[in-house]
Fold this protein.
Amino acid sequence: MGRKPERCLGAALESIAGVCDHAVINDNSGLASSENAAIVLSSTLARTGRLTLVRSSFVDFATARNTCLDATPAEFSHAWGLFVDADEVHGAELLAMAALLPHLPREIEAVDGYCRFFVGSFSWWMDLQRSRCFVRVSPQLRWSGKIHERLAPVGRRIALPAVWAQYGHVVLPREEAEKSKLYASLGAGTAPTQLQLESPNATSVWAHLLLHAHRFDGKHSPAMDMVIKRLSLERTELFACVDRQAG
């Protein structure tokens, strides 16, 4: 997690608390204290002594993830590890997936699921992708690549019909433009224009993503209830603009 306020962070942590024996979180904001760190330290995982918070400065995404691997307590060096970002929130599917792990043959080293990517608001999603979830931790495991990073060595992988949510594009237009600028600096995508950075709006930052977006008629994870209620009030006008753009 970086300097940008991670509004789904608390929900993300609560959604994994029931399956994690220990969580390692990298605060790569470079700040001595932050709103995000305060959320982490007040989480169930922290209050029950099941969390390691690492403080670092952001270099690239592989470095950030390897920092978490390096900080993993030795007792978990050969355990199943859960991969999760600050804007990913799980539901009941995670507990079901975790229950299967002890019964898998040793040659299976990774268990994937499917992540639904929301855009602009909680009412629209743009993609459903096979995504990393669980992986067997080992001393050889490393991430590589500045962005869209890869994890290796990983042997046989399987995918389960489990779906969770990613809210990385449910941000303010300014935050979306700044994220696009960061990603472009690391070699992914096209950098936003100066106008998009100076006067961002729903149309300028999400038009291409909302073009083929689907309306979401399902249910979000219960962990997201308060987040959705609060942001729906704070961003009424923005969400209405997203509806018009997508509809």
Remarks:
- The mean pLDDT is 95.
- The radius of gyration is 18 Å.
